[in-house]
Amino acid sequence: MLDKIGDIRKDHKRLGGRKLFFKLEAFMDEHNKKRNLYLLTAKGLALTPIIVEISIWSDENVRELNSIMGDSPEIAIMKGNKEAFIQMIKDNYKTKTEKFY
């Protein structure tokens, strides 16, 4: 277990934030049998357009200040058709979580 944590620490600068998150999540799933599940309320899901706007703004204004920001295909999709992207996020979330409501 400690070897894997050491590997993750070594990789944190090489990996983009999203990849590091998934690697840590997989590690935690493998070693933690208890998992807390947090679900968004309708009000929380209504923040999706704001989060998308902040993501686009960040890509356009902060990228040069943050060397670990990688190119994201999601940003290109957001910029191409923002409303469709927002609806896709909401629909996917509802589909994946409907069994918990």
How would you explain this protein's 3D organization?
By secondary structure, the chain is an all-alpha fold. It has 2 domains: about 1-35, no CATH class; about 35-100, no CATH class. Helix content is about 65%, strand content about 0%. The protein has 6 helices and no strands. It has helices at about 1-10, 15-30, 40-45, 50-60, 75-80, 80-95. α1 runs antiparallel to α2 (about 15-30) and α5 (about 75-80) crosses α6 (about 80-95). The longest helix has 16 residues, at about 80-95. It is flat and about 40 Å long. The termini are far apart. The model has no long low-confidence stretch (mean pLDDT about 80).
Quickly describe the structure.
With 101 residues, the protein is an all-alpha fold.
Overview features:
mainly alpha, 6 helices, 66% helix
Helix content: 55-70%
Category by helix and strand content: mainly alpha
Span from first to last CA? 35 Å
Using the CA coordinates, give the radius of gyration: 17 Å
Shape: flat
- Total strand segments: 0
How many separate domains?
2
Give me the number of helical elements.
Answer: 6
**Parts with pLDDT < 50 across at least 5 consecutive residues:** none
Question: How much of the residues is beta strand, in percent?
Answer: under 5%
List the helices and strands in order.
Answer: HHHHHH
Largest sheet: none
On the 0 to 100 scale, the average pLDDT is 78
